[in-house]
Fold:
Amino acid sequence: MDPKEINVSFFTLISTLASACWQQLGKAPSPEDGLIRMDLASAQSTIDILLMLQDKTRGNLSGTEEKLLEDVIASLQENYAEAAANGDTL
Structure:
C-alpha cells in the first residue's frame, strides 16, 4: 500500500469500522473487557455503513483507497455469511 495514495483519515475510518465489525462477528475480542461476543444485527449494520460509504465516495478515491474498501467489505461479508449460515451465536 503506497502511503501517498491513501488518506490517513480515510484509512483510520475504514480500519475503525472494520475492527468494530470483526468484534460484532465474534472474531475479535472487545477492547474493553477482552470478551468475545457476537451481534450479527450490528455486524450487518456496520457492513451496510461501509457499503454506503463505498457508494457515496465512488469516483473520489484513489485506486488504493478503493481497493482497501472493496477488500474490507468482501472479507466482512464473507465472514458474516458464514456466521449467518451456521446460525452462530455466542
